[in-house]
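Researcher: I'd like a candidate sequence for this fold, 232 residues long. If you have to choose between options at a position, lean toward the conservative one.
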C-alpha cells in the first residue's frame, strides 16, 4: 500500500470517530426552603386569650355512669340502714358508739335534713321531686367528674328521703323520714339526728360548691381567670 493511501486511511479513520462529549458542569442550584409561617391563631383562640377564659382541651366522655353508680350506691345503703334501724332500734335504748362520739338512736322526722322544716313534709317532697328531675335533666351533658360525684351523692340522698315521704306512715307525700345517727348525745341535743341520705346530700352539696369555686362547669368546661398585665 502506498504512502498516500495510508495517509488517506488515517484521515478517514479520524473523521469516523465520534466527537468527544463535552461535559459542562452546570452550577448547582441552591434551593433555600422558605420557612413555613407559624400557624396563625384562630379567631376563637385569640378571643379566648383576650377574654381570659377557655375550654381546656377536648371535652371528656359523659359521666352519667359515675352519677348512676354513686346515686344507686347511696340509695341502697340508705334503704338498708333504715330497714335495720326500724328492725333493731325502734323502741330500744340508744346504742353508744366510739365512746359516745356517735349514738345509734331512732327518730321519725317529718321535716327536712337534720330535723329542719318540721311539718312541711309535702312541700319538701315536691322540692325533692324537683331536685331529682333537675339532676336527671342536666345529666345528659354531664362531663365533669367532680360534678358527677356531687350530683350523684345529692341524687341518691334526695331519692332516699323522698322514698320515705312517699311510702312511709302516715301516708304518701306525708311520710316521716327515718333518722338514726346522733352526734355526742343520744337524743340529738348537740346535733340533730340524721341518716345516710342526709350525709350524702351535705357531702354532695359541698363538692358542687368546690367545683363552682374552681370555675368548673358540669358540662366539662373550665373557665380561666383573665390575666391582668402590669402596665410597667
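Model: Candidate sequence:
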Amino acid at each position: 500500500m502506498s504512502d498516500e493511501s495510508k495517509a488517506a486511511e488515517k484521515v478517514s479513520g479520524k473523521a469516523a470517530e465520534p466527537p468527544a462529549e463535552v461535559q459542562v458542569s452546570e452550577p448547582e442550584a441552591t434551593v433555600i426552603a422558605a420557612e413555613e409561617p407559624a400557624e396563625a391563631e384562630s379567631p376563637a383562640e385569640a378571643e379566648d386569650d383576650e377574654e381570659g377564659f377557655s375550654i381546656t382541651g377536648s371535652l371528656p366522655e359523659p359521666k352519667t355512669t359515675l352519677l348512676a353508680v354513686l346515686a344507686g350506691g347511696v340509695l341502697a345503703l340508705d334503704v338498708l340502714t333504715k330497714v335495720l334501724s326500724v328492725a333493731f332500734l325502734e323502741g330500744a335504748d340508744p346504742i353508744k358508739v366510739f365512746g359516745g362520739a356517735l349514738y345509734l338512736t331512732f327518730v321519725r322526722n317529718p321535716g327536712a335534713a337534720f330535723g329542719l322544716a318540721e311539718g312541711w313534709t309535702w312541700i319538701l317532697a315536691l322540692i325533692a321531686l324537683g331536685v331529682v328531675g333537675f339532676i336527671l335533666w342536666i345529666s345528659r351533658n354531664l362531663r365533669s367528674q367532680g360534678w358527677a360525684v356531687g350530683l350523684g351523692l345529692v341524687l341518691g340522698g334526695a331519692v332516699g328521703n323522698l322514698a320515705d315521704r312517699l311510702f312511709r306512715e302516715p301516708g304518701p307525700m306525708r311520710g316521716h323520714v327515718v333518722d338514726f345517727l346522733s352526734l355526742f348525745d343520744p337524743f340529738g341535743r348537740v346535733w340533730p339526728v340524721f341518716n345516710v341520705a342526709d350525709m350524702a346530700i351535705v357531702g354532695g352539696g359541698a363538692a358542687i360548691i368546690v367545683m363552682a369555686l374552681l370555675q368548673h362547669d358540669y358540662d366539662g368546661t373550665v373557665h380561666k381567670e383573665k390575666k391582668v398585665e402590669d402596665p410597667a
